[in-house]
Amino acid sequence: MDTTARATEAMSPVEKSAIRKVAIRLVPFVALMFFINYLDRTAIGFAAPNGMESDLALSAAQFGFASGVFFIGYILLEVPSNLALHKFGARKWLARIMVTWGVVALLFTWVQNFEQLVVLRFLLGVMEAGFFPGAILFLSLWVPARHRSKILALFYLAQPLTTVIGAPLAGWLISHDGAFFGLEGWRFMFLGVSVPAIVIGVVAWFYLKDRPSDAKWLTREEQVWLTGALQKEAATKTGSTAGGKHPSMWKVFGNGRVWMLSFIYFGFVYGLYALAFFLPTIIGGFQEQYGTDFSITERGFITAIPYVPAAIALYFWSRDATKRGLRTWHIALPALVGAVSIPLALFAGSPAATIAVIAVTAMAIFAALPNFWTLPTQFLTGVAAAAGIALINTIGNLAGFSAPYITGAVTDWTGNYEVPMFIVGGFMLLSAVLMVVLSRMKKPDGAATPEEARDLAATAGLD
C-alpha cells in the first residue's frame, strides 16, 4: 500500500489551482524563514575555524558543547511551543519566534568568552523552539496528504540551499575583517545573518494566514475545496475522534509509532549536524592534511559543494515518492547509503574525493528528510499532530546536542575524525533498520480496525 495517493492521479481544475497558489504564495516564504533559521543556528560552524576558536580560546570539545547546547533549550520548549502555535495560530507564533531568535542571534556579535557563548547558544535554542515542527505543521494544514510530499520537499530545499548560498555568504562576511566598526570578520558575520530574522519575522506577522478560509488570494471555490479536503482527511486520523474532537495530547506520548519515528529521525539529525557543524573545520584541516591553501571565501564555496547535489537529490527523490506513492525504501535506502558513505570519506585520499563522498552523504540525508516528515501527519491531526510532530522533532534534536559534542570530544580524545565519523554512520544505519522494523510493525493489542490498519500501513510505508 502507498502511504499517499499519487499526485499524478486526475485532479480537478480547482484542486490544481489551489495547490499551485499555495506552492507559490506560502512555500517560498516559509522556506525563506527556514533558510534564515538554519543559517542562524549553524553560523557558529562557519565562525569557529575563521577566528572564533582562537579568539575565544576554544577546544574542539568546548566548540562541540557550545554548538550542541542550543538543543537543550530547544528540546525543553519544543512541545510547549508547538502547542502554543496550535492555540494562538501559526502566523503570530512563527513571527514571534523569528523576531526573538533574531535578537539573541544579534548578541553573538559581542560574545567575549566560552561561558557567554554557551549562554547565548542556550538562549538561541529557547527562542527558536518550535519553529521547525511549527512550519511543518503549518504547511500540513494547508495541503492534503496526496500533495504533502511535494510541498514539504519544496520547503525542505531551503536547508541544503542554506549552505549552498549561506556558506559563501558567511565566507564573504568573514573576509570583511575590521570593515564594520572594527569588528572581527566572524563577529561581522553574526551581525549580517541575524538582522534578516528580525525583519522577516515582522513581515510574517502580516503576510501569513492561519487557514485557507483566511486567504484572500484564493477564490471562494478554492477555499471551499481545500477546507473540505482537509476536514475530510482529518476525520480519518488517529488524532480525531467522533464528532471531530481531538483527544488529549498525552495519548501521543504512548503511541509506539510516534516513538519509532522519533528514533529514526534521531539518526538522520545526528548525521545532519555532524556535517553542518564540523564540515567547515574538516575543510580547514585540508591544509595540514593535504598541503592545500584555501582562502576564507574559497572555504565557504567548498563547504557549499556537497549541498548542491543534495538539493537536486532532495527534489527528484521526493518527486519520485510523490509519483509512486511513498514507500519504505524512500527513507530506509538513503539512510543506508549515508551510513556507508560517511565513514568512507576518511579514506578518500584527497580534498576532492573527500568532498565527493561527503556529497553522497548529504544527498542521502536530504533525500530522506522531506519524505520522512509526511508520515506523522498521515495518522495524527489537531493537537495530537502538534504534540506528535514536536515530540518527534524533540527526540531527533537530542542528536543535535549529542552529535557536535560527541564529535568534538572524541576528536580531542583520538586526535582525528575517524571514530566520530564511524559513530555517525552507526546512527544512520540504525535509522535504516528502524524504518524497516516500522514497516513490519503490527498493532500490539489485537487486530486493527480497517481504518487503523490503513493508518498503520500509511505510517510504515507498506508496499
Question: Explain this structure to me?
Answer:
The chain is mainly α. It has a single domain, classed as MFS general substrate transporter like domains (Growth Hormone, Chain: A), CATH 1.20.1250. The chain contains 20 helices and no strands. The protein has helices at residues 13-25, 27-47, 52-55, 60-88, 90-107, 114-128, 131-140, 145-156, 158-174, 185-207, 220-234, 256-284, 286-290, 296-304, 307-324, 329-344, 351-372, 382-414, 418-439, 450-460. α2 packs antiparallel against α10 (185-207) and α7 (131-140) runs antiparallel to α18 (382-414). Mean pLDDT is 82; it is low at 1-5, 238-247 and 443-463.
CATH class: Mainly Alpha
Write down the CATH topology: Growth Hormone, Chain: A
Give the tally of β-strands.
Answer: 0
Principal-axis shape equals globular
Keywords:
single chain, 463 residues, Growth Hormone, Chain: A, 20 helices, 74% helix, disordered N terminus
Q: Helices and strands in order, then pairings?
A:
Elements: H1 13-25, H2 27-47, H3 52-55, H4 60-88, H5 90-107, H6 114-128, H7 131-140, H8 145-156, H9 158-174, H10 185-207, H11 220-234, H12 256-284, H13 286-290, H14 296-304, H15 307-324, H16 329-344, H17 351-372, H18 382-414, H19 418-439, H20 450-460
